[in-house]
């Protein structure tokens, strides 16, 4: 799996996680998705289903950010590289 992740280009990683994040963002901001869930008055574990909708959305965003962090760590994007200084000729 790590070989597959390392073989991905930076563009593929950003687009993939951008699409996933866009879906989570749409779930939070598009009114008809929330209003569809708002009509449900079912209580699950003592909380209305609409609260579970928001908790699921928050968990989804958290998992997407963690996934991107993991992929960038496997690819070595966090390794610090020395910055070239101006005027040294390097």
Folded structure, characterized:
With 90 residues, the chain is mostly helical. The protein has one domain (7-75). It has helices at residues 2-7, 10-29, 31-38, 49-75, and strands spanning 43-44, 47-48. Strands 1-2 form a two-stranded antiparallel ribbon. A hairpin with a 2-residue loop joins β1 and β2 (47-48). The longest helix has 27 residues, at 49-75. The radius of gyration is 20 Å and the shape is elongated. The model has no long low-confidence stretch (mean pLDDT 79).
Quickly list its features:
2 strands; single chain; mainly alpha; 90 residues; two-stranded antiparallel sheet; elongated
Please specify the SSE layout and strand pairing.
Blueprint: H1 2-7, H2 10-29, H3 31-38, E1 43-44, E2 47-48, H4 49-75
Antiparallel strand pairs: 1-2
Helix pairs in contact: 2-4
> How far is the first residue's CA from the last residue's CA?
37 Å
Total domain count: 1
Rg calc: 20 Å
- What portion of residues belong to β-strands? under 5%
Number of E strands: 2
Sketch the topology as an H/E string, one letter per element. HHHEEH
Q: Globular, elongated, flat, extended or rod-shaped: what is the shape?
A: elongated
> What structural category characterises the helix and strand content?
mainly alpha
Whole-number mean pLDDT: 79
The level of helicity is 55-70%
Flag low-confidence runs: none
**Major beta sheet summary:** 2 strands, antiparallel
Strands in their spatial order, largest beta sheet: 1-2
How large is the count of helical segments? 4
